[in-house]
User: Which sequence fits this backbone?
């Protein structure tokens, strides 16, 4: 096993520099560019996608937009994020030699108009997990709460949040199937290309990135650090479509046809109940 981590003196040096900027409430573009350069190793080798959103904010400041010394709330958040992760994140471990079989994860999200809803829309998400080691298939699906929907839709002014609803099950799966994911490779399939690229880069040109912040704030609360492979699956073949619309069918019902996740069309749910997903 290969272990990659930052040296203690490097952590202290960067943390002290961040503390000075936060205490002075000041950072010039030149200082942002210099600090960004110091964090190249941490971002690319130690944190990868996880640090990309915070790293992106330093890049914006380095380009010199806005007042010379002014620090935006996003930049302050990025600096606090880096300090917390430098001090608390676990080393990155790269496994070599024989590997366990990978998990297969299908995710989907939906957002549709709803005239009866207060915000005028309704949204939901779902996922299907297949573990070839014991041939277990499990699924979950839920509607996005009105509180989160209000946040993502900017109080209803944004009428389409399918991109965000596609990302939610990817993060939720790390909590629901945490024990299975530890130390495993994961092949994640989504039918939404923008979500796939967002997961690869972990950044977005849109200003609505609160969801990304909430899922990458505290390294001690991050459930697992699996190795992921991201794939595009055609919408018509995405077996997570049913769970994302709260539709899970009984395979013994006459004329019912479900997803073809291997021969796992008959699956074991979390309660041991035999189910089938659309």
Assistant:
């Amino acid at each position: 096993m290969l272990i990659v981590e930052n040296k203690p003196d490097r952590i202290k040096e960067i943390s002290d520099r961040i503390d000075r900027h936060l205490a002075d409430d000041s950072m010039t573009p030149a200082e942002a560019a210099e600090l960004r350069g110091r964090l190249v190793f941490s971002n690319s080798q130690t944190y990868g996608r996880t640090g990309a959103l915070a790293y992106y904010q330093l890049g914006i400041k380095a380009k010199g937009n806005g007042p010379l010394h002014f620090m935006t709330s996003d930049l302050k958040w990025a600096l606090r994020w880096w300090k917390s992760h430098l001090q608390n994140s676990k080393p990155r471990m790269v496994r070599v030699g024989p590997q366990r079989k990978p998990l297969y994860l299908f995710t989907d999200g939906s957002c549709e108009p709803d005239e009866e809803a207060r915000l005028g829309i309704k949204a939901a998400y779902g996922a299907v997990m297949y573990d070839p080691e014991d041939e277990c298939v499990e699924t979950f699906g839920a509607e996005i709460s009105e509180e989160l929907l209000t946040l993502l839709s900017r109080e209803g002014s944004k009428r389409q949040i399918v991109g965000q609803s596609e990302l939610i099950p990817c993060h939720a799966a790390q909590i629901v199937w945490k024990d299975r994911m530890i130390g495993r490779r994961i092949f994640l399939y989504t039918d939404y290309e923008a979500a796939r690229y967002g997961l690869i880069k972990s950044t977005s040109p849109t200003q609505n990135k609160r969801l990304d912040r909430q899922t990458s704030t505290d390294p001690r609360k991050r459930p697992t650090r699996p190795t992921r492979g991201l794939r595009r699956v055609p919408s018509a073949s995405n077996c997570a479509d049913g769970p994302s619309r709260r539709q899970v069918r009984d395979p013994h019902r006459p004329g019912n046809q479900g997803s073809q996740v291997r021969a796992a069309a008959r699956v074991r749910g979390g309660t041991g109940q035999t189910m089938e997903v659309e």
About this structure: Confidence is low (pLDDT under 50) at residues 207-224, 250-278. The longest helix spans residues 8-24. The longest strand covers residues 103-113.
